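Give me the fold.
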Amino acid sequence: MADSRMTKNHADMKKCGRVYTFVSSVYVTAFGFYILADMYLLLITMNGDFKYLLLNGPVFKGAVLAAGFLGTYKKSNLFAGIAPMIMFINTALFRNVDNYFDQFWGTVMPMKIDLMYLFMTIALAVMTILANMKYRYLEQQEGFPQFSEVFEQQKTGKPQYGATYAERLEQLKRTAGGNMEGIPDETPMMDESRPSIGQMDEI
């Protein structure tokens, strides 16, 4: 029972790791690209959109990126929940602002992009919080974080096999499924009739 529980915990630990990797990758990729795009527009714009681009990109999107990433890195539900809240404030503040994108896409497209980012951030926050809850549970379990029988035996100093020949033989018989019936229970020691090293010196 203990082995199966440790195996399950090991699998759950790997799932948490995959969630953290996925969520942090999405934050870095999606929001990092948005920030870089706004910074590029900051360099080339010649109209009055400087303040909008600075706030909408590096400030708000940067804050969302930082909070979302810290939610996975620090396993913090607080940071994970703050990320969509910042994104919601960003979307609400700039929903009717005329900006640099209007001349290309009209006023609707930037709002759609921010709404898409908002829903994405909510989904990422839910994934992070669920993974954090599982991680906190696993922290309290025996074998954390490796959940490996071999590691636990090495940590406690308990040998994986018995210290005597009889114990090792019994372990091998169990793992071999009864195919080692022909192995003698005792191993003959050094032939008593064979002269010892001291006797050889006398000769």
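Residues 2-139 form one domain.
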